[in-house]
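User: Once you have settled down, look closely at the record that follows, taking as long as you need, and be ready to discuss the fold:
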Amino acid sequence: MKVGTEQEWQSASKELLASERELEEHAKRVEEQRRELPWVAVEKDYRFASEDGPKSLAELFEGRSQLLIYHLMFGEDWAVACPGSSSDRTNTRRDRRAGRDLRAVSRALRPGS
């Protein structure tokens, strides 16, 4: 680790801030590109297991225009899901989804199940 002067730190910090701002602007452009991707009609009749029995993809939406799917991943010998894919996604984010035209579901399969 390099030890420098406060002036060197100030200069490096300003450069870092400029890089962070560039990165943020780039991320915004990429997000806009993602939103502008064309939609594709789903022609296949996908079926999904649910608490209420088999459902079609359209039925998973429950009348809403958006469907958010959480895919929880398990390793061969894991007792719980991957922390990165299962980090508190239901309780804290539920408040942000309230009143929105969004349906959230989760998917989790243990290996061998």
In short: The helical segments are 6-35, 57-60, 83-86, 91-97.
